[in-house]
Amino acid sequence: MHCRCKLILSAILITGISLCRQEASAQEAHGADTIPLHAVVVGTDTIPVITLAIFDVVDRMPKALRKEKERYNRLRNAVYVTYPYARTAARLLQDVNGRLATMSKRERKEFLASKEKEMKAQFGDKLQNLSVYQGKVLMKLINRETGQNCYEIIKELKGGFNARLWQTVAFFFGGNLKSEYDKQEDHDIEVIVQELEMYQRYRAYN
């Protein structure tokens, strides 16, 4: 009886040692798809430890705040879409004004016609696809970048009749070529522009 107990005890110990070895080998890293993790050892167990990112659990956003977020996101999208066009317009206007100063009336007319054709080929379809809201934001941004509103630019380059004509068209579509950019009134646009410029500088640096 005493000998039988010894055999049973030995069998239990051997089985236990074997299982511990199997568990330990299962916790070792094998293969190229293994992901290393921090771990703590509790007794004979190795337990992986993962630190999750901090996040806030909040109640459902109030309706008024949701509306404000939707408004801001719409404006942000419009600025991101139209700001490159406003920057292009500013560079173009500076270049055109510099060249026109040395041209005769005939050369000026031919140059403006060729430049208008070039710009329509490059940006015509893209600008036509802008929504009315995006068009309004673009006019404000052009004023921000050039110091002139769209009416003044058209009048200077194409004449008063064309400026009045396009102002009438803009009016029927809910726009205004004489839209002015105001840093206080258009504070949200300014914040988004600063965000966009910072992002572009970061990308250029990296």
Write the SSE topology.
Blueprint: H1 2-26, E1 38-42, E2 45-49, H2 63-100, H3 105-128, H4 132-146, H5 150-158, H6 160-172, H7 187-205
Helix pairs in contact: 2-4, 2-7, 5-6
Could you explain how this protein is built, in words?
- It is built from seven helices and two strands.
- The chain has a two-stranded antiparallel ribbon with strand order 1-2.
- The chain has a domain of 110 residues.
- With 206 residues, the chain is mostly helical.
Key traits:
two-stranded antiparallel ribbon
Please list the strands of the largest sheet in the order they lie side by side. 1-2
User: β content, as a range?
Assistant: under 5%
Task: Estimate the global geometry from the Cα principal axes.
Answer: elongated
Order of helices and strands: HEEHHHHHH
Helix-strand makeup class: mainly alpha
The whole-angstrom Rg is: 34 Å
Averaged pLDDT, please?
75
Major beta-sheet overview: 2 strands, antiparallel
Q: Please report the total strand number as a whole number.
A: 2
In which range does the helix fraction lie?
A: 55-70%
Low-pLDDT segments, ≥5 res: 11-27
How far apart are the first and last residues' alpha carbons, in Å? 79 Å
Instruction: List the total number of helices.
Output: 7
Give a brief rundown of this model.
The protein has 206 residues and is mainly α.
